[in-house]
Amino acid sequence: RDPSYEITLGAGERPEMLYIGKNVLWTGTMNEDETTKGLSDKVIDRSMLITFPCPKKLYGRNTSKIEKPQLTLSHARWESWKQSALHSEDDRIVDFINDRKDIIEKINGEMSEMGRNLGHRVWQSIQNYILNYPLVIAAKNGQGDMNDAAQQAFCDALAFKMMPKLRGLEVNGYNEGRLGRIKQYLAEGAPELAGDFDNACSMTSEIFQWNSAEFMGL
């Protein structure tokens, strides 16, 4: 049976029953900007914090009318996507995963010295992100290069999961050498992020702030 929930309306109204089908996927999102409180490290560990690149061209909206959904996702299709993910021991990606894990551990060592170390949850999230990445799954099926697809996923995961953990750190003094070593490790495993890392370290506030997304190439 589909689960049901009793929704309290208040104001003396009778509760309404809400029935949820198995094809419903709940996703929580929020914006983080100058109008909201900053996200805690605990929230970042359980989320993907996406920084969007600056638009090269601004577009207006022709209408404010809400468009009808163009696509619905069935429960069967969702299950097929889940089953398509690679296993971490798959010969086609195991070497890549192990190599990038070594780089994450090196970066984590430097982050730990600055009081911003990662836990198992973050690495597991990065690994699962790579294994479930659509281009990685396509490469598994012979559509595209596996290493290129996995590298793109790895850069995403670093930018969305690890770099935000460094925000607020002073970039000079005690932290300067450690941030420099993190930059070296990025050069080894994720050179695509070098420009954004330099931007984060060169703010006039002298505080690390991950606020660009040049690696997306948009």
Tell me about this structure.
The protein is mainly alpha-helical. Helix content is 43%, strand content 4%. The protein is built from 8 helices and 2 strands. It has helices at residues 41-45, 75-84, 94-113, 120-131, 134-140, 146-162, 176-189, 194-201, and strands at residues 4-7, 16-19. It has a two-stranded antiparallel ribbon. A hairpin with an 8-residue loop joins strand 1 (4-7) and strand 2. Helix 3 (94-113) packs antiparallel against helix 7 and helix 7 (176-189) runs antiparallel to helix 8. The radius of gyration is 21 Å and the shape is globular.
Strand order across the largest sheet: 1-2
Low-confidence spans: pLDDT under 50, at least 5 residues? none
How does the helix and strand content classify structurally? Answer: mainly alpha
Could you give the count of β-strands? 2
State which percent range the strand residues make up. Answer: under 5%
List the keywords.
2 strands, 218 residues, mainly alpha, two-stranded antiparallel sheet
Question: What's the quick description here?
Answer:
The protein has 218 residues and is mainly alpha-helical.
Q: What is the strand and helix layout of this fold?
A:
Elements: E1 4-7, E2 16-19, H1 41-45, H2 75-84, H3 94-113, H4 120-131, H5 134-140, H6 146-162, H7 176-189, H8 194-201
Antiparallel strand pairs: 1-2
Helix pairs in contact: 3-7, 4-6, 5-6, 7-8
